[in-house]
């Protein structure tokens, strides 16, 4: 596991990336080169506002931490994460839980607390 260091210095087979508390305003492009092996991605406590389309190609993810950001929407592509077991999007600005999350059949824990949910 590594924290706030350039990803290109690491092996191509990475299962866990920890970028918590790194003042990120966007998802680093380098993360996508680990799409074939990445199972755990921790991006908590940053300043992320949105998740780019490419983000949803990380289909091997089992654990995704996005708490304490400024995310305003989870797009329908969340359904791509069929192996996702744990999702933490607490303390963001998400107004609704997308219906497509029902396609995440492996999901056991989904934390939406601290969001201004309206439905």
Question: Describe it for me?
Answer:
The protein has 119 residues and is mostly beta strands. The chain has a single domain (7-111), classed as Ribonuclease Inhibitor (Leucine-rich repeat, LRR (right-handed beta-alpha superhelix)), CATH 3.80.10.10. Helix content is 0%, strand content 13%. The chain has no helices and 5 strands. Strands 1-2-3-4-5 form a 5-stranded parallel sheet, with no helix packed on it. It is globular and about 40 Å long. It comes from Cricetulus griseus (Chinese hamster). Keywords: Leucine-rich repeat, Repeat. This is Leucine-rich repeat-containing protein 1. InterPro entries: Leu-rich_rpt, Leu-rich_rpt_typical-subtyp, LRR_dom_sf, Synaptic_Scaffolding_LAP-MAGUK.
CATH topology: Leucine-rich repeat, LRR (right-handed beta-alpha superhelix)
**Could you state the CATH homologous superfamily?**
Ribonuclease Inhibitor
- Overall pLDDT level: 93
Poorly predicted tracts of residues: none
Please list the strands of the largest sheet in the order they lie side by side. Answer: 1-2-3-4-5
Keywords:
119 residues; mainly beta; Leucine-rich repeat, LRR (right-handed beta-alpha superhelix); 5-stranded parallel sheet; 0% helix
